[in-house]
Amino acid sequence: MTARHDPAVLPPDAWRQIGAAALVRVMAALLGLAFGALLRNGAVAVVVLMAVLYVIPLVVLSLPGGEDVGGFLPLAAGLELLRQTPQTMPASTAVAVCAAWALVPLAIALAVSRRPGSTSR
């Protein structure tokens, strides 16, 4: 007797979770890309990325009033989307925070970098 199992059937909330997880990973990758473009050193960019994602939130949360600001840090907003933390902001705000953390550093990196195709010495 064989059991019937359909792996294509996902729980109702699964696609939201999959999309949120993809958004968080894309945000972190774009943030790392921006740090790499700004700092021009891959190792330093990785260290700064890890500090922004993991160390700075711990420091901010230990400060008075840090709970108010901590939700707007990149990984906290991503965890809000993944529903891994208590819901303190709407999903649309969490998406906007993730997008801002991904796009603003990229815009800064583009603004300070030279034109494409130019040689740097």
From TrEMBL:
Protein name (record): Uncharacterized protein
| Keyword Transmembrane among record annotations | yes
Per the record, the domain of life is Bacteria
Q: Which UniProt keywords apply?
A: Membrane, Transmembrane, Transmembrane helix
Q: Where are the transmembrane segments?
A: 20-39, 46-65, 91-112
